[in-house]
Structures are given as C-alpha cells and as structure tokens.
Amino acid sequence: MAQKPAAKKALGDDPHFAQAVQNYEAGLRALQEHKYEKAKSLLQKVLSGTSSQFKSPEEHFDFAVSLMNVGDYVGAREHIEKLLKQVPKADYVLYGLAALDCLTGHVEDALKHLDEAIRQNSSLRFQARNDSDFQNLAEDPRFTELLYPDPGAEMPADTSDSEV
Rounded CA gap, 33 and 78, in Å? Predict the structure, then answer.
C-alpha cells in the first residue's frame, strides 16, 4: 500500500490555532449563557490571533459575519472593507456590507450595496426577503422594489421597427 507523503504540520499541532479554537468555543458558550462581556473578550482574543490567517476570501467573510452576529460592527466593517479591496465584485461581500449597513442604520448605503449585490447575483434578492438583518428596511418602498421588481422591468424593451 502506498504511503501518503509527509503532511504539513496539522492545524491541531499549532498552539496558536488550538488557543484560538479554545477561545472561540468558550466565547460561544458565554454567548449562549448571555455573558456578553465575557464572550466579547474571548472572541476579541480569537480575532487578534487569526485575522491574517484566512485561507480564502470566503473564510474571511465568514469571520466578518461572525463578528456581525456578536454585535462587533466596527470589527466586521474593517474586515468587509479589506475583503472589498481583495474581491471588489464579490456578490456575497456586497450583500454582507448591505446587511451591515442596515444593522448600523446606514439605510442609503444599505440600499446601494444591496442593489449592487443583486446586480451581481439576482438570487440574492430571494435571500434578502427572509434575512432579518434587513428588517429595518421592511417598510421602505425602495427595498420592496429591489426585492420584488416589476416582472417586465428586467426584460429588454422591444426596439424592432418591423412595422412598415
């Protein structure tokens, strides 16, 4: 039976990674117990130890979303802005920025970024319909127009001059 080549050092063997995982798990437990200050402290330790160790933009984005979910909007914005520089046309980053803008009361920016995200990927329109991060926009007619466009609005106009 052929041997696999010697693998790189396993992540579990990295003491920094092990500590980050331990802090993350403790932070989640503290969140579940409604001990928010303790959770914030533990999750900030994770942030300080892992911020430059993302393997992909998607992994980095997941981290930014986790910051949003614990209410660290400043940290989340920092990471999303870094991602925008790396992958400026990524629909999921624009969508995340729109959600963050909405959560932080930046309604105009939220609408603008959501529109950009939907232009990149129209299926995000359906996701936004059920996303509680956008509840502050639920009554805004511009938001409704983004999510429920006129069915004929996306169809190109008939410009043929076939009548003679």
Answer: 27
Digit-coded pLDDT (tens) for 15-36: 767 777 888 888 889 888 988 8
Helices 36-50 and 57-69 pack at an angle, to 10 degrees, of: 160
Per-residue pLDDT at 11? 47
End-to-end C-alpha distance for the chain, whole angstroms: 78
Residues 6+ apart with CB under 8 A from 100: 68, 73, 76, 77, 80, 133
Tell me if residue 10 falls in helix, strand or coil: coil
Q: Which amino acid is at 133?
A: D
User: 65-81 pLDDT, tens per residue?
Assistant: 988 988 999 999 999 99
Write down all domains in the chain, each with its CATH number in brackets.
16-53 (no CATH), 56-151 (1.25.40.10)
Tell me, yes or no, if the pTM score tops 0.70.
no
CA 161, CA 21: separation in Å to the nearest integer? 66
E-state strands within 2-160:
none
